[in-house]
Amino acid sequence: MTKILGIIPARGGSKGIPGKNIRMLGGKPLIHYAVRAARESKLVDRIILTTDSSEIAEVGRSLDVEVPFLRPAHLAQDDTPMFPVIDHAVHFVEEQGWQPDIILLLQPTAPLRQPEHIQAAVKLLTESKCDSVVSVVEVPQHYAPDFVLKLEEGKLKPFLEGGEKVTRRQDTRSAFSRDGTIYAFWRDVFFYKRSIYGDNCRPLIIPADMSCNLDTMEDWGEVEKKMKDQPLP
């Protein structure tokens, strides 16, 4: 039986949106939406909240989520990569005698995530035998890399080789951006390849209207508007 661990990272020192991870969105703390999606997917065996904040931990426990530790301060800095945060959480549960097969990274900053996104990612991961599945959103054609420029000694140059030859929108090459809805990967890929991507990463394409990443108050306002039009559970 495949065992799946969901990890929700929620440190306390958010600057772009103060108190972001437990700020009320649609009448519920932000982390509620990650918990709900994981729980309602009916696939996740354990949901772990990793935080350095006792206040966030308390809110997590009120949502009936496991908060088995407070994350060490050195793993909760502005510039802390995600890999050691996941590594710390997985090592903790394994030292307690439970080893997952699949790890899901469920960042609270993607509150439009649905149980179906988790189900689709796990299905793709298991059926394709790939190393990982990462959610992406297609970059609008007018922002396509073929149209992107860079500055070299004050002069505009195409960012991509051959970009100067693309002048029509319909001729642009498709591009995708990670949107943070879900990262799904095998535990063995994570530990043996030291990566959440591995060598064979497959995309889960999320419709633009279901994709968001809360970094600024402007982002927050846009999601609030979306939720007023179509409230989430």
Structure characterization notes:
This protein is of the alpha/beta class. The chain has two domains: about 5-135 and about 180-230, Spore Coat Polysaccharide Biosynthesis Protein SpsA, Chain A, CATH 3.90.550; about 140-175, no CATH class. Helix content is about 30%, strand content about 20%. It is built from six helices and ten strands. The protein has helices at about 30-40, 55-60, 80-95, 115-130, 185-190, 215-230; strands at about 5-10, 25, 30, 45-50, 100-105, 130-140, 150, 155-160, 175-185, 200-205. A six-stranded mixed beta sheet has the order 4-1-5-9-6-10. A two-stranded antiparallel sheet has the order 2-3. The chain has a two-stranded antiparallel ribbon with strand order 7-8. The two termini are about 30 Å apart.
Tags for this model:
233 residues; alpha/beta; Spore Coat Polysaccharide Biosynthesis Protein SpsA, Chain A; 2 domains; two-stranded antiparallel sheet; 6 helices; 10 strands; 28% helix; globular
